[in-house]
Design brief:
The complex is a heterodimer of chains A (about 260) and B (about 325). Chain A is α/β, with parallel strands linked by helices. Chain A contains 10 helices and 10 strands. The longest helix of chain A is centred in the C-terminal third of the chain and has 18 residues. The chains are: A alpha/beta (about 260), B alpha/beta (about 325).
Chain lengths: ~260, ~325
């Protein structure tokens, strides 16, 4: 299987710089390398502050890279600007943790789903409407949803709208940053099933970032474990879960409640 | 019996009387860890606030909360204030908002002692350091002088726990105490709560949405749905109520790998959508016509295992 994304020696540090001195103190991502194959779900786990979200933001170019290279479909995305960057962003989309914050409260669902199509200037007006209705159908919503506002929806419905909005321009790579962490168990199951269904339907590749090892193990084909900005173990999901090599991975797995049963 | 709650009802809105908690009855025995689980909006936190009498003014309530022979709902505000922190204390989810950012953490522990005991200033400091040692904090003198923002999430939660146990209360209510923490920190805090419970023999009411966690920690578990307790059990694997079973099926576990997760159809009804009949009936895979009409009683199935379901009795 070909690689859709390759990351080589990625580095990012944050720090306060002022007029007199510039210092980069906190290293958030420290020389990490991995590749993601087309069509797989790649998991990134670790505790808060380990740099997993920073990695996601670097890949989607929400943050600038200090050092290293990100290669998407054989082309480096480091120096992309203008139209090229816009095209790349069409293909690499993000889903965020909290659907209460990621949807514009003043716009209805129809507008939220239409916006990405307008930005990227896709389809004619009639086709856009048809495309939106098709997508709503996948999520099990009917046409009346178009006129609703985010506050009228439940948490699970909101997250489904956020996912649909991310998928409107048919990206091939989706970064899901803690996409189910804010949801209740029964809703979480709905969203996970929904994401798997979409993956089969649209041939997506996911980078699935989470702190919950059970969820990551359930969703992912391969998993990378991060600690203090470094990747300490990458392995197939089954191997990593049942036969972890690194002591930190072992301790993480042991900390899962209910595992002893 | 440390606390016994009988037919607790909580309403909002004077006119429409939206009912958030319906006829809730359960008890916590001395030294017991009781779990209260459910999805968001099921009324579990409201119940804890009702016990502490911290409900907002727009909420009205009826029923009995018997705590050491007194009905908490009849106490005056002054009597209640002297009880809070001394006999009942609470651990909240987010330690950063539970602690005052402008005071040193040591002082915040000592404050509880100042209010409820007659110890001198020096004795209070000694006792505070002792408490901090008890919750496994290191560099006691140093940590005593720190501000909340200088501590890690786990350390902050330890401070909150130290405040909660300062006056050796009979009952501690922990409302999602580990939800904001990482898994490995969560394990440490849970171990600490277990250890303290063993040593001090207080009762602990542990509120959480995490079934696995509650299953590991608690002696008994009450499962809530839409304001009702639907089941009280000792071991989650004995669960009989369809809602509990559905919830357990919806948690991703190693056994589910490669299969679709079970997802409960529909969603939790909002307060104004709640109807008569079994609260879970509209989403229940086993629901019969009768379920939509009759609200089943919470009946004992077998020693201490209570279930609220028509289907189970047949």
């Amino acid at each position: 299987m070909e690689n859709i994304l390759e990351i080589k020696n990625l580095k990012k540090s944050f720090g306060n710089s002022n007029f007199f001195k510039s210092k980069k103190s906190k290293i958030a991502v420290d020389n990490i390398s991995f590749e993601i194959k087309k069509g797989e779900i790649f998991g990134l786990v670790g505790e808060s502050g380990c740099g997993k979200s920073t990695t996601g933001n670097l890949i989607s170019k929400l943050l600038n890279i200090d050092e290293g290279e990100i290669i998407y479909k054989g082309k480096s995305i480091n120096g992309l600007k203008g139209q090229e960057l816009k095209n790349m962003r069409k293909n690499i989309q993000m889903i965020f943790q909290d659907p209460y914050h990621s949807l514009n409260p003043k716009k209805n669902i129809g507008w939220i789903l239409m916006e990405p199509l307008i930005i990227h200037d896709l389809y004619s007006k009639d086709e856009r409407r048809k495309k939106i209705l098709d997508m709503l159908d996948i999520a099990g919503f009917d046409e009346s949803f178009l006129d609703k506002y985010p506050h009228e929806l439940s948490g699970g419905q909101r997250q489904r709208v956020a996912i649909l909005a991310a998928l409107m321009c048919e990206p091939d790579f989706v970064i899901a940053d803690e996409a189910v962490s804010a949801l209740d168990v029964s809703v979480q199951a709905q969203i996970l099933n929904f994401m798997k269904k979409l993956q089969n339907k649209m041939g997506l590749t996911y980078l699935f970032i989470s702190h919950d090892l059970n969820v990551v193990y359930y969703m992912c084909d391969r998993i990378a474990v991060m600690k203090d900005g470094k990747i300490i173990e990458i392995d197939g999901a089954k191997n990593l879960y049942h036969n972890p090599k690194h002591p930190y991975t072992k301790s993480l797995l042991q900390a899962i409640p209910g595992r002893s049963k | 019996m440390t606390i016994e709650i009988k037919n607790l009802n909580i309403y909002f809105n004077e006119k429409t009387k939206l009912q958030a908690v319906n006829n809730l009855s359960f008890n916590v025995k001395k030294g017991e860890i009781m779990g209260l689980v459910g999805e968001s909006g099921c009324g579990k936190s409201l119940t804890s606030l009702a016990i502490m009498r911290l409900l907002r003014k727009n909420a009205s309530f009826s029923g009995d909360i018997n705590f050491l022979g007194e009905n908490l709902l009849n106490l005056s505000a002054k009597e209640m204030t002297s009880l809070r922190g001394r006999e009942i204390s609470m651990i909240f989810q987010e330690p950063l908002t539970a602690l005052n950012p402008l005071h040193r953490v040591g002082k915040q522990i000592a404050e509880t002692l100042k209010i409820h005991t007659s110890l001198s200033k020096k004795e209070r400091k000694e006792k505070t350091l002792e408490l901090m040692n008890e919750v496994n904090l290191k560099d006691l003198e140093d940590t005593y002088k720190k501000f909340p923002h200088e501590l890690s999430g786990g350390q902050r939660q330890r401070i909150v726990i130290a405040i909660a146990i300062a006056c050796e209360p009979q009952l501690i209510i922990a409302d999602e105490p580990t939800t904001a923490l990482d898994v490995s920190t969560q394990t440490q805090i849970i171990d600490l709560l277990k250890k303290l419970n063993n040593k001090k023999d207080h009762s602990l009411l542990f509120i959480s949405h995490d079934l696995d966690l509650v299953g590991d920690l608690c002696h008994r578990i009450a499962i809530m749905y839409a304001g009702h307790i639907v089941e009280i059990i000792e071991k989650l694997k004995d669960a009989k109520h369809p809602y509990t079973k559905c919830l357990l099926d919806a948690i991703p576990s190693p056994l589910h790998k490669g299969k679709d997760l079970y997802s409960i159809p529909g969603r939790v009804p909002t307060l104004s959508e709640r109807k008569s009949g079994c609260p879970f009936a509209p989403r229940c895979p086993m629901a019969k016509e009768k379920c939509h009409e009759i609200l089943p009683e919470l009946l004992e199935k077998k020693d201490g295992h209570l279930v609220r379901c028509l289907y189970i009795y047949r």
